[in-house]
Automatic annotation (TrEMBL):
It is an enzyme of class 2 (transferase). It catalyses: a ribonucleoside 5'-diphosphate + ATP = a ribonucleoside 5'-triphosphate + ADP; a 2'-deoxyribonucleoside 5'-diphosphate + ATP = a 2'-deoxyribonucleoside 5'-triphosphate + ADP. It is a peripheral membrane protein. NCBIfam families: PRK00668.1 (NF001908). The keyword Membrane does not apply. Its EC number is 2.7.4.6. It comes from Lates calcarifer (Barramundi). Major role in the synthesis of nucleoside triphosphates other than ATP. Its main location: other. Keywords: ATP-binding, Cell cycle, Cell projection, Cytoplasm, Kinase, Magnesium, Metal-binding, Nucleotide metabolism, Nucleotide-binding, Nucleus, Transferase. This is Nucleoside diphosphate kinase.
């Protein structure tokens, strides 16, 4: 019991210290630490030598996924895989935000219907963190066209048409950074230590 109490106090102490270090560093560097969060935190806290343990990606449950009450199942897949949730919110997306998010698709014939679909109801948008999370998430989400997505992927299990493919996942590290900045304020993302961190992150 005493050992357990000591562990808890040590843990609280570590978190308090790391939060203070974070604030100081943020003020000094002027960088949005939440976005760089992981890489900076890796230097302070993680024993890992792998560079992308604290990688982050943007995942969004699209309006059809929210309407069909799939949010919980989608979150569960990312938790089960061992990734860490560092940001989450529900919102009705504006056309302005969407046009920035999908800026590469503006000239596509399906773009107007994509905007209508994405603004048809609320979306749940999240930032997940973990080793190689950008690429792994794309694999977990599956092919853009659910008709070609493998069973076991989110799109392969929950959808059948490209115009209602349930979920968004950033497609590259650069894309993830751009999208996270677009959808989240730095203050909406949390740097926190998972209690299973030693088994999932400190490889
Ligand atoms: P992804 O979402 O897999 O990154 P994308 O970036 O090429 O795919 O396209 C963004 C979204 O646009 C996609 O999830 C669904 C929609 N979309 C893509 N191709 C489409 C098509 N041929 N017809 C209708 N919607 C399409
Ligand atoms: Mg894409």
């Amino acid at each position: 019991m005493i050992v357990l109490q000591r562990c808890i106090f040590m843990r609280i102490g570590q978190q308090f210290c790391s939060r203070n270090q974070e604030t100081t560093k943020s003020l000094v560097s002027g960088f949005p630490t939440a976005l760089l969060g992981g890489h900076r935190a890796a230097g302070l806290r993680s024993r890992s030598t792998l560079p992308n343990v604290r990688e982050r990606t943007l995942i969004a449950v699209k309006p059809d996924g929210v309407q069909r009450r799939l949010v919980g199942q989608i979150i569960q897949r990312f938790e089960q895989r061992g990734f860490k949730l560092v940001g989450l919110k529900m919102l009705q997306v504006s056309e302005d935000l969407l046009s920035q998010h999908y800026c590469e698709l503006r000239t596509k014939p399906f773009y107007p219907s994509l905007l209508l679909y994405m603004t048809s109801g609320p979306v749940v948008v999240m930032v997940w963190e973990g080793y190689n999370v950008v690429q792994t998430s794309r694999t977990m989400v599956g092919h853009t066209n659910p008709a070609e997505a493998q069973a076991g992927t989110v799109r392969g299990d929950f959808s059948f048409h490209v115009s209602r493919n349930v979920v968004h996942a950033s497609d590259s590290l650069e894309g993830a950074q751009r999208e996270i900045q677009l959808w989240f304020q730095g203050s909406e993302l949390l740097n926190w230590d998972c209690c299973d961190q030693t088994s999932t992150c400190e490889l």
